[in-house]
Amino acid sequence: MVDGLRPARLTVGIISAGRVGTALGVALERCEHVVVACSAISNESRLRAARRLPDTAVLPVQEVAGRAELLVLAVPDAELGALVSGLAATGAVRPGAIVVHTSGINGIGVLEPLTAQGCIPLAIHPAMTFTGADEDIDRLSDACFGVTAADEIGYAIGQSLVLEIGGEPFRVREDARALYHAALAHAGNHVTTVVLDAVEALRAALRGQELLGQELIVDAPGGLAERIVAPLARASLENALQRGQAALTGPVARGDADSLGRHLQALSETDPELAQAYRANSLRTAERAHAPEEVFEVLQTNGTGQP
Q1: d(CA 201, CA 212)
Q2: How much is the average pLDDT of 130-141?
Q3: How many CB atoms lie within 10 A of CB 42?
């Protein structure tokens, strides 16, 4: 780290060996830190730790904490508070240790019991989705990381750690963490839901047809439906990020109420819940596009004249 804020190498402990924790462990080892211990309870976590961090000891939580100069708490949001309270109650964390959690919604307030014992609190959240695949590790070098710290020294440490693994650090205020995390969940999770819904609807539209005299197989993962949707979805995302509001196309942006009504009717016959999701997204799109009144009328009546 710059300015002598820490030694060239840190001993790192990771709680626990999940998708995020092990990916960060590999990234930290690549910049010459040493992951000396991690915790892993489930068989899946133990296998992941053995594969990604083969030289790292798998130990109980308190022993991991006691060995670490940099302690990474990579547990689900709902478990973080109890973990911190337990570590504080046992006095397992070294005074002066850097304690980092990876929760998006929490700032450093959740670390107060350890801060009171002389630890340096940091919230460092990778703005990235993690599936457990090896690509997770490579994606860290292209990711942005939301950093919340108690003071400028804390921010310098957090930003330096992120820069070391190739990421881009940015500051998030303590009181803005929930809004920050909601925005990322909306972008990451809901985009996935919309794309998968679209794939299912397209499969239904293509099912039962023939190709070269044989029935077209559309239900296999990575099949025709995905190949159709992929370039469209990628272009839409790139256009949205590069052109903003001007990226909106389709029947809502054109004010084509008739097409929207037909869409809703077809979707309702296939999957009523999907039709409701389409209607909700279309209403939000109509608001963004300042669509004409007839578009809102169709969307508010399900396209069938019924509310």
Answers
A1: 23
A2: 92
A3: 11
